[in-house]
Design goal:
heterodimer; A: mainly alpha; 3-stranded antiparallel sheet; two-stranded antiparallel sheet; 7 helices; elongated; B: mainly alpha; two-stranded antiparallel ribbon; 19 helices; globular
């Protein structure tokens, strides 16, 4: 009861202090204006200026093949044909005007069925590969839906298929994957990875179909 | 050692290595001592002169609160108007339209209160104008609001019998000019050189290797992502937040983003020690927070590295761990670390999709937000922690039969009432919201909101329940991450979470400041043999026990129905 009373007295107290707030209003508005200019105007413009000096000139680094832009180095794109290394499943179908994951929970039965279907599909396209050789990232959707990478194992498991379609030796393709494997940061921090787009561009340069 | 684990350890140690000197630096700024950024003083003088503010005028705790609430109201109205009108404002190369009133209501509150729950997708729901002039601006000022409020608390703890607690505008502006802005600049430059876009160019179009026409969203991302983490905001440029390859291109940027989001909350704990000259007390607080962090982190990393048992049954290999909703370049170990840090620290940015995380991880993330003070957000983390300190002092006092005292002041009924109200507010607003939404889902599945309740949940069973629990917990903790499968872009969720966010922000600022202000006015009792020592590990354990009992146990029934039940069903 006393609690409610003290609450009520606090509210009426707030009312009586409305005047104080009024005195702070004009300085608040002016301070807001000047801080908008600094934090949302000057600061990002300065960063945009610095960005001009970077490799992609601040527009994002592109990958060029046969004189035209075929993608952004950092953003994954859809590779589903057998002649290319596949990229990971994507919840947004690699539509880079949006982004997102499947948001499926680990126990969702529909989701688990979908994963199983992807495994079956992968095995159909990659005869000779056993289930235990398939790394999880090849049958699960990424967080962004635009994951540009595979783990080295995720690329190597596709080598036999790609080599066969392209008429190359498995050894040569495997070496190509090795050459495209980026080591962890400073060699010791984080996972190793393979950029799928760059790998596939090199593949086309080596032996176009 | 596994490179993924060594990466996590490296990131944490790097954070500490920066946080300690940063804490000393922050303490120096607010003690008014010389720092190497003093050449910025003319800029600050100009800001104050332009705004008609006298930064030397001392305020009492009530005046501080009124100043804080007044300027926050100005921002709320400004943000709301801009978001509604963004379709007609400049810097809109992708021709996106204005937000609906309920979405704008939710978004404006969300960014104002440092929560950054996003019920829109950045690619289509915001323009370059609102991204910068609303979101990035609020990233700065909401973080500075938290820091300034905390400095008021420190000042009240430091001085003996006073109601002069410095000037709010001074604390607030210096938080931006001396801390947030310079560090953001350095971080954004690192980002720019690692492939994050910085130009104002709109969407690009190209034809992919397989012949698909692809549109690519981009924009001046780097500047925003820097302060998004440094200010523990978390509201990202793109829908996928820091899982997006432009918003987080590689492991280095990921490390920088992780360090940036933890560094100020941890530095502010050390700043307490330097500011009050009570380093041991700061270590006790830091120790309790770190213990809490580790207790949440270890099970999460373990669960993610071991992968999804239901997928293991299908016979494929999970060499690194669970990969659904995760990016190859970060890997499950790092994603687990990020998920725990971003939830205990109130950032709420994500580099993996939490909805797809293992149930154990989901539990830990929820607990992190339920406690909301293991490091915690910029400024507000320690403010939340302070409430638990007061309760712990009071209970310890009762246990030994002495009048509870903290830093030389008696804690009496009035302070305890405020502390208890604030501590119980958090579970109250979360569980009431959850009860209402659960009722609506079950009893009104066809109700005619923009999205019918029957389609809210992206997953069946316990996991669907967790999605709702997570949404309210994240709102109340001003975290902003989500189990994003939840269909939250509609009137019900926009309005209810909007209210929860605003209560969850301002009451936990008002409460601790009121307590500190009241205590500062009381008679100072010099330390004696009978004083409860606040800088001992015994007292640290006491605080920890209070946190576990109040924050964690009140949520146990809800957790049992959600992620815990899912964990035991996942075989």
């Amino acid at each position: 009861m006393s609690l409610i009373k003290s609450l009520i007295s606090n509210i009426s107290y707030l009312k009586s202090n409305f005047k104080t707030m009024k005195a702070y209003l004009l300085p608040s508005i002016k301070l807001t204006i000047i801080l908008i200019v600094i934090t949302a105007g000057i600061y990002p413009l300065a960063i945009a200026g610095v960005g001009k000096l970077t490799p992609g000139h601040g527009d994002g680094e592109t990958v060029i093949y046969k004189g035209r832009v075929v993608g952004y180095a950092n953003e994954g794109q859809k590779f589903t044909k057998d002649q290319y290394f596949w990229s990971r499943p994507s919840a947004v179908d690699y539509n880079a005007a949006g982004s997102g994951g499947s948001n499926k929970g680990p126990s969702n039965p529909d989701y688990l069925k979908q994963v199983n279907d992807r495994i079956t599909d992968f095995m159909k396209h990659n005869p000779g590969v056993t289930r235990s050789q398939i790394p999880a990232e090849l049958v699960t959707a990424s967080g962004s839906g635009l994951d540009p990478d595979l783990s080295p194992a995720g690329a190597q498991v596709q080598v036999a298929r790609v080599a066969k379609v392209r008429g190359l030796s498995a050894d040569a393709v495997s070496k190509l994957v090795d050459a495209h494997t980026e080591k962890p940061l400073f060699g010791v921090f984080g996972p190793a990875k393979v950029n799928v787009l760059k790998l596939n561009v090199t593949l086309d340069e080596l032996k176009p179909l | 050692m596994n490179t993924e684990i060594s990466g996590v350890i490296f990131t944490y140690l790097l954070t500490l290595a920066i946080a300690i000197p940063l804490g000393r630096y922050i303490a120096r700024i607010f003690k008014g001592e010389k720092t190497w950024l003093d050449f910025l003083a003319p800029v600050e003088r100009f800001i104050f002169r332009f705004s008609g503010i006298d930064p030397k005028k001392e305020m009492n705790w009530k005046q501080h609160l009124f100043a804080l609430l007044t300027i926050n109201s100005v921002w709320l109205i400004y943000a709301f108007v801009c978001l509604m009108a963004q379709g007609h404002l400049p810097l809109n190369p992708d021709a996106n339209t204005g937000q609906s009133p309920d979405t704008a209501f939710n978004t404006a509150i969300s960014f104002l209160v440092n929560c950054n729950l996003q019920h829109y997708s950045g690619e289509s729901g915001a323009t370059y104008f609102t991204q910068h002039f609303v979101f990035m601006f609020l990233h700065f000022v909401s973080a500075a609001t938290g820091i300034a409020a905390l400095i008021v608390l420190y000042k009240a703890m430091k001085d003996k019998v006073t109601d002069k607690l410095g000037n709010f505008w001074d604390y607030f502006v210096k938080s931006i000019t001396r801390v947030l802005l310079p560090i953001s600049f350095v971080i954004a430059v690192i980002f720019a050189f690692n492939g994050m876009t910085t130009s104002y160019a709109g969407k690009d179009t190209f034809i992919s290797m397989q012949g698909d026409t692809v549109h690519v969203s981009r924009g001046p991302v780097a500047a925003l992502v820097a302060i998004k983490h440094l200010g523990t905001n978390g509201g990202g440029w793109f829908g996928a937040n820091s899982a997006h390859p432009i918003e987080n291109p590689n492991y280095l940027t990921n490390t920088v983003e992780l360090v940036a989001q933890c560094v100020i909350p941890i530095a502010l704990v050390f700043a307490l020690g330097f500011y009050l000259n009570k380093k041991k007390f700061a270590y006790v607080i830091f120790g309790v927070m770190t213990l809490g962090m580790l207790l949440l982190l270890i099970p999460t990393m373990n669960a993610e590295i071991n992968g999804n048992p239901a997928i293991a049954h299908m016979g494929i290999s999970q060499p690194t761990g669970a990969m659904e909703g995760k990016e190859v370049r970060f890997g499950p170990a790092n994603s687990a670390y990020w998920s725990v840090l971003t939830t205990i620290i109130s950032t709420g940015s994500v580099n993996s999709m939490h909805d797809s995380a293992m149930p154990v991880s989901g539990t830990m993330m929820l607990l992190g937000m339920m406690v909301n003070c293991f490091y915690g957000g910029c400024g507000v983390g320690v403010l939340n922690f302070y409430v638990f300190i007061i309760i712990a002092v009071f209970i310890s006092g009762l246990m030994v039969g002495r009048t509870p005292e903290f830093l030389g002041r008696k804690i009496e009924a009035r302070e305890m009432k405020i502390a208890s109200l604030i501590a119980l507010l958090h579970p109250f607003i979360i569980l009431v919201g959850l009860a209402i939404s659960s009722y609506v889902v079950v009893h009104m599945p066809g109700a005619d909101w923009a999205v019918k309740p029957s389609t809210w949940l992206n997953n069946p069973g316990n996991h669907g329940f967790s999605e709702m629990l997570y949404e309210y917990t994240s709102s109340a903790a001003n975290n902003g991450s989500g189990f994003e499968g939840l269909g939250d872009g509609n009137i019900f969720w926009n309005v209810t979470t909007g209210i929860v966010m605003i209560l969850g922000r301002f009451l936990p600022i008002i409460g601790p400041l009121a307590i500190a202000g009241l205590l500062a006015n009381k008679k100072y009792i010099p330390e004696s043999a009978g004083t409860l020592k606040s800088d001992t590990s015994t007292f640290g354990l006491m605080i920890f026990a209070v946190i576990v009992i109040i924050a964690a146990l009140s949520f146990f029934p809800a957790l049992a129905l959600g992620p815990i039940a899912e964990h035991f069903s996942l075989r």
